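User: Please fill in residues for this 365-position structure.
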């Protein structure tokens, strides 16, 4: 990568394959090794493996470069979320979406109940209402497209408004991935990822990341987040980090197929009489549908999830395997999410097979 002409930046499709490789010297392996160790011989740059592990580094470098900043790897997306929220002082004010990933909503609700944070819940698709909530805020939390309502926020506009009010901006970029959206380029201070989802892509690891910009302010945030990770101890296992990097190699291929499948399915789903609403922002690979039952939408949605053969009825998303779930079965899911909403994480299988499976399940409701 070092020898590439900087005037001709490499496409992200190339970068997901090329980034995070060992140095190109004779005899070097093509892939980074996995380092299983708890400690290091003293007087080196790092003395204990809760602080750093060389297996984290290539994945952090790859995702950091894709997002345009410096990444830190954590044991889960929620560990990255907790690290980002640790940037808010006790008693601080957070402006947050009323409908977002339920782990974030529950964390903020309980922090408010316990008097640790003051949360102002907003509809982040409403620019005026979100901007009006910003004066005096310490942090604006955005998730776009949101899980599972697929609401899209104006990241650049709201970030500018938040900075004017003196608030930091965190963007959960899990649904978009850096191939479809780069919030740091829109001015965000921290990007959060559940690498469990698209970045690793095979439903076989739980991991998370924060990414901060390569600026003085960004480096200071990075240092605070790294300290939070070391002291909080929510660190990744080396094997998981290695699997995630392997998964990242095919991110652009997986996403291309999954996005094309999602666009196709969003259209077909809209034609089915059991589907009362399709939520799909026009891009990405998640489609949420509202299922119409005869007076019991929740039961109809459960029947859809239980009636498929290829689609896996399981929580989580972003894997090569198509998955679906009625979201309100999760305790803590915001009430803004309709009881009959089923979130479809569209995988890379043949789209006609995926549609036939959904159709037969919908037909049998
Ligand atoms: C899954 C998810 C998280 C939490 O990540 P984990 O890896 O499950 O801890 C956070 N945000 C979004 C948008 C998610 O989908």
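Assistant: Residues filled in for all 365 positions:
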């Amino acid at each position: 990568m070092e020898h590439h002409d900087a005037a001709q930046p490499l496409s992200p499709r190339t970068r997901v394959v090329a980034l995070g490789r060992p140095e190109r010297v004779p005899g070097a392996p093509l892939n980074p090794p996995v380092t299983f160790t708890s400690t290091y011989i003293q007087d080196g740059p790092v003395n204990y493996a809760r602080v750093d592990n060389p297996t984290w580094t290539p994945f952090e470098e790859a995702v950091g470069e894709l997002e345009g900043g410096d990444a830190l790897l954590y044991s889960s997306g929620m560990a990255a979320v907790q690290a980002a929220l640790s940037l808010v002082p006790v008693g601080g004010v957070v402006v947050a979406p009323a409908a977002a990933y339920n782990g974030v909503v529950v964390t903020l609700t309980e922090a408010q109940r316990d008097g640790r944070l003051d949360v102002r819940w907003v509809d982040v698709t409403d620019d005026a209402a979100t901007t009006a909530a910003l004066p005096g805020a310490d942090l604006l939390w955005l998730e776009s497209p949101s899980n599972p309502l697929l609401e899209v926020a104006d990241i650049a506009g709201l970030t500018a408004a938040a900075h004017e009010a003196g608030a930091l901006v965190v963007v959960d970029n899990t649904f978009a991935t850096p191939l479809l959206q780069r919030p740091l380029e829109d001015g965000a201070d921290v990007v959060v990822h559940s690498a469990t989802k698209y970045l690793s892509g095979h439903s076989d690891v739980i991991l998370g990341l924060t990414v901060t910009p390569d600026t003085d302010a960004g480096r200071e945030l990075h240092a605070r987040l790294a300290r939070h990770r070391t002291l909080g101890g929510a660190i990744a296992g080396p094997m998981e980090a290695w699997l995630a990097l392997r998964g990242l190699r095919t991110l652009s291929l997986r996403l291309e197929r999954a996005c094309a499948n999602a666009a196709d399915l969003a259209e077909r789903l809209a034609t089915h009489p059991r589907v009362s609403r399709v939520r799909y922002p026009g891009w990405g690979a998640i489609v949420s549908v509202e299922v119409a039952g005869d007076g019991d939408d929740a039961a109809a949605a459960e029947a859809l999830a239980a009636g498929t053969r290829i689609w896996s009825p399981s929580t989580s998303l972003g894997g090569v395997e198509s998955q679906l779930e009625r979201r309100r079965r999760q305790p803590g899911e915001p009430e803004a999410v309709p009881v009959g909403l089923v979130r479809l994480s569209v995988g890379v299988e043949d789209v006609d097979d995926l549609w036939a499976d959904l159709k037969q399940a919908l037909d049998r409701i």
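For context: The mean pLDDT is 97.
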